[in-house]
Design a protein that fits this description.
272 residues, alpha/beta, Rossmann fold, 17% strand, globular, binds adenosine-5'-diphosphate, binds magnesium ion
């Protein structure tokens, strides 16, 4: 079983890319679990066709831990994909990172996840604190993909995630498996991301174009694989899914300084 995670800045396209990859994998017969680890709890919306209303933290808040059953937190989405949302704290109370720890521990205790070929953790990577680092730190995810555009703040988050992976790589199996470029139409973006990946000692495994078909599909609460299976964008996600299945280029990343990130971004900004 492959245990992977998608990390990246909030709003960069992790859940969209994750859901499309999960859908593509399920369509070639793979048994997939997607676990949303973002207090926004919308990771699995496109797979379920609605926002998940029963997150793990919701259950923990409203029930005695001993009363919670697998069925309360495991949901079935598009083409049989297992969907879980860790959930988030009530605004103003509690800590989102802590929520992820509690949620993942409960999944373990209940042996809630079915037998699968691939588990995908979709994790907010703006802060790589104890909670958000849990999938990396405790061996839940071994192959980490970072979703990034060519924008400075997205690269900054990606670089921070690389620092987190490097910290825990020595004591476990966790490795950086690559950068997934998700275009924001920055000038020279693909070349910039190729260079960024090289600086981090990894590969750009995909460059996903920005395309309105993604938004049209989202308006219908569907992945592109479901909404427009014959589109070029669906092909991009299918190819990424194949790459993830066969990727053996797992590295301990070499994060860079903020100065180097700034230089990289400003060089492309002025050259193009
Ligand atoms: P995250 O999970 O990283 O917070 P989302 O996956 O929710 O981000 O994406 C944020 C927004 O960007 C969504 O409205 C989504 O439809 C849009 N989006 C993501 N990727 C693309 C793309 N390749 N082309 C067009 N829109 C995209
Ligand atoms: Mg998300």
């Amino acid at each position: 079983m492959k245990k992977i995670a998608f990390y990246g800045k909030g709003g960069i396209g992790k859940s969209t890319t994750a859901s499309n990859v999960s859908a593509a994998l399920s369509l070639i017969g793979k048994r997939v679990c997607q676990i949303g680890c973002d207090p926004k709890n919308d990771s699995t919306r496109l797979l379920l066709g609605h926002i998940c209303k029963e997150t793990v933290l919701d259950q923990i808040r409203t029930k005695d831990a001993s009363e919670i059953k697998k069925e309360d937190i495991i949901h079935t989405g598009f083409n049989g994909i297992t969907c879980v949302e860790a959930g988030g704290p009530e605004p103003g109370v509690g800590c989102a990172g802590r929520g992820i720890i509690v949620a993942l521990q409960l999944l373990d205790r209940l042996h809630a996840l079915p037998e699968s070929d691939l588990i995908l953790y979709d994790v907010l990577g703006d802060v790589v604190c104890g909670g958000f680092a849990m999938p990396i730190r405790e061996g839940y995810a071994e192959e980490i993909y970072v979703v990034s555009s060519g924008e400075l703040m997205s690269l900054y988050a990606a670089n921070n995630i690389a620092k987190g992976i490097r910290r825990f790589a020595s004591r476990g199996k966790v490795r950086l498996a690559g950068i997934i470029g998700n275009s924001r139409k920055v000038p020279g973006e693909k070349e910039l991301l190729l260079e960024f990946a090289e600086m981090l000692h990894t590969k750009l495994v995909a460059f996903v174009p920005r395309d309105k078909i993604v938004n049209l599909a989202e308006n219908n609460r569907q992945t592109v694989l479901q909404y427009a299976p014959d589109s070029a964008q669906a092909d991009v996600y299918r190819k990424l899914a194949e790459t993830i299945l066969t990727n053996e280029n797992l590295t301990i990343p070499t994060p860079v300084s903020f100065d180097d990130l700034e230089k990289l971004v400003s060089r492309y900004g002025t050259e193009n």
